Structure formats: structure tokens, C-alpha cells
Amino acid sequence: MKKGNLHTLHGGDLDEISRIYGIDKKDILNFSGNVNPLGLPLSVKNAIINNPDAAVNYPDVSYVELRRAIGEYTGTDHEHIVVGNGSTELISLFIKITAPKKALIVSPAYSEYLNEVKLSGGSAELFPLRDEEEFRLNEERLITAVTDDTDLLVICNPNNPTGTYIDCAVIKKLLAHCKETGTYVMIDETYVEFSDREKNVSAIPLAKEFKNLFVIRGTSKFFACPGLRLGYGICSDEGLLERINKCKDPWSVNIFAEIAGRTMFADREYAKRTLELTGRERKRIYAALKEFKNIHVYESQSNFFLCRIEKEDITSTQIFEELIKDNILIRDASDFPYLGSRYLRFCILDENSNTLLLNSLKKCIE
Fold first, then answer.
1. pLDDT over threshold 80, residue 99
2. CA-to-CA distance for 346 and 333, rounded, in angstroms?
3. Residue 174 above 90 pLDDT?
4. Per-residue burial over 153-175, b = 16 or more CB atoms within 10 Å of its CB, e = otherwise
5. Which of 116, 138, 94 is nearest to 247 (CA)?
């Protein structure tokens, strides 16, 4: 890979960054990966350490106890839950099984949604979140865009990379319209657990009422375990869940991910600490950025911020290159649809690291 393309790499591609820039991976301060800075919960570490011999056994092919733990955590009937090898497997399976001929993807968004639709033989149209609307969803415009020939609507909520969100009342209105048009709705809630509870972001409470809804979550970001590869989906369409389970590889969730999942979803103290840290730092960082010259920050309900550079002679790629010299890795967002060379994204880490980034960013743009 050419060095010039590295600034738009996924935040998990630290090995490639390390090789090209000659930085030891452990020395990179990663503001690109959007992973919880608290790290893997201690309860999960202990559960894995205390069960090394679990590897001699197959996981429960039905994952009943894991699904029950997820059900307790989300307030959902465990019979409406399917687990997978990360959220990516479930995105792929859902799109493959529903085989949409025409999909509508709220964008900018994760590129795998579009890739999977194309791999399934369908076509996709991107529904733009607009900068002049602060990348907030225009619900009436979206409702108009979803027609009888729209098979699938894809939403990431809160959205990546903008951090903007849709509340449950608006989602319900969208679901009712999509029910009338015969449209499946897939909502990726990878970042919803970082949001303020009073914002009422999650669509999971609507899953029982709307069989056309499939909610997907992963554990990589909130529980800081991208290497475990554990995701889950929630849907009340039992026929659809049965088809997903039939197409899914057996034991796609390994036994240590299963043990970790049963443990992490019960760790309420870890979740509380995460929400306190994220909420506090999100407010502090947003207030600080609002005072910066030459940059516009968008309100976020995730654990990251999208910013637009307003100084004409600086690009997001240049800022990426300046910060990586100090081992600071951010995400140049120029390759996302509807963004461009003036957009960058970075996540919330611990207080000291966040302050370091703010100071370094200020030097670059002022």
C-alpha cells in the first residue's frame, strides 16, 4: 500500500501504520479506532484467565446462555437474538439472506454496507446527510426517498463518521413507513451504548413491534475487544432469524468470546464508568473545539467527533501527517461519501490523551 493512502485506513490497521511510518504499534496513540479507553473489562480478563481449558470444548452451538446474557443486558427476549463473529458477519448474513434488489443507505457511512449489497447482486443508493443540516437526519426527506421498490434501508445510529443520531420516536415513524412499503430496516447500533441515556437513541425497544427491523450491535468498541469478534442481532421475525442461523457457520463465535460475552454484559460497573468518562469528556472536548479558530465541530452522541477544517490552505491529510509525527493517529475522513479533504474524525480517549490531542490539533490549524 502506498504511503499516501494510509491516512484513510481503518483505525484497526495499526500494523500497516507501524510498518510504513516506522513506529512501534504500542507507541501509537490511536484516536482512529473508536475503542473504549478503559480497555477490556477486568471481569472479562479474569473469566478468560480462569477458564483456559475451555478451549478443549466446543461452544454451545445454540449459544443459549450467551443470548440470555444479551437479553438481560438489552431487555430483549433471548429468542429474538442471534450472535455472530462480530457485527460484520451479521451485516453480511442479513443482506445476503434478504437479497435486496434496491437498498437505500444513509450516508456517509461504513463502506461494508454498500459492499455487501453489491456482493448480494443488488444495487444501492446513498441518502445524503447534509453538512448544511449539521449532518442531522432530515426525516421527511428520507421518508420520501423510501418507496415501494426500496427493499432495504440501512442506518447507522449514532452515525459513523458524523456522530449524529436519530431518536426512538423518529425511528418508529420511519419503521411504520417502511412497513407500508415492505422495506426491511437494518440499524447498526455499534456506538449507541456511548450515547446519553436521556437521548433515547436505541431502536431495540421497537423490535418486538416491527418485524421488519433488524438491529445489529458489536462489542469491539464499547467493551474494547475487537480481537474477540463478538456481535449480535435482534429481530422479532422468527422466520428470518431461522434463515440466518441456518446460513451462519456453526460455532462462528469461539468459546472465549462466548465466555467473555456472558461476563461483560453483566458488568454494570464497567458500563457505568464508561458512560461517565465518555459523557464528561464529550462535553469538555466539544466546548474546547467550539473555541478553536479554523475548525467546525459537529455535535456527537458517540465516542468520537467529526470536524471540518475551515482554513483553506490545510487539508485533513496534512493534519494526519503532522500528528503521526508525534505518534498521534487520527482518521482522515476524506474518503467517506459526501465528505472531502477538509474532514477529520477522532475518538475520545482518557483525559490526558484528549488534552494532548487538542493541544496538538490547535497548533496545526491556528
1. yes
2. 10
3. yes
4. bbbbbbbbbbbbbbbbeebbebb
5. 94
pLDDT digits (tens, 9 = 90+) for 229-251: 999 999 999 999 999 999 999 99
* Closest among 316, 34, 6 to 163, alpha carbons compared: 34
pLDDT attached to residue 2? 40
Spatial separation of the C-alpha atoms in residues 139 and 208, rounded to whole Å: 22
Rounded to whole angstroms, the Cα distance separating 125 from 335 reads 17
- Which of the four CATH numbers 3.40.50.2020, 3.50.50.60, 3.40.640.10, 3.40.50.1820 does domain 42-267 have? 3.40.640.10
Distance of alpha carbon 105 from the chain centroid = 15
Distance CA 204, CA 254 (A): 25
pTM of structure: 0.95
Residue type, 260: A
305 CB neighbour count, 10 Å cutoff: 22
Domain layout of the chain by residue ranges: 3-40+269-365, 42-267
| Single-letter amino acid code for the residue at 72 | E
What pLDDT does residue 11 have?
53
Burial grade of 270 (CB within 10 A; 0-12, 13-18, 19 or more):
buried
Cβ contacts of 249-254, under 8 Å, gap ≥ 24: 249/85, 250/61, 251/58, 251/59, 251/61, 252/84, 252/85, 252/89, 253/59, 253/63, 253/66, 253/83, 253/84, 253/85, 253/229, 254/59, 254/229
Q: Strand 328-329 vs strand 29-30: parallel, antiparallel, or unpaired?
A: parallel
CA dihedral 120, 126, 127, 132 (to 10 degrees): 150
Query: In angstroms, rounded to a whole number, what is the distance separating the alpha carbons of residues 7 and 329?
Result: 9
**Dihedrals phi, psi of 83, to nearest 5 degrees:** -110, 155
Nearest to 118 by CA among 88, 89, 92: 92
Pairing of strands 81-84, 331-332: unpaired
CA distance 226 to 222: 10
CATH class of 3-40+269-365: alpha beta
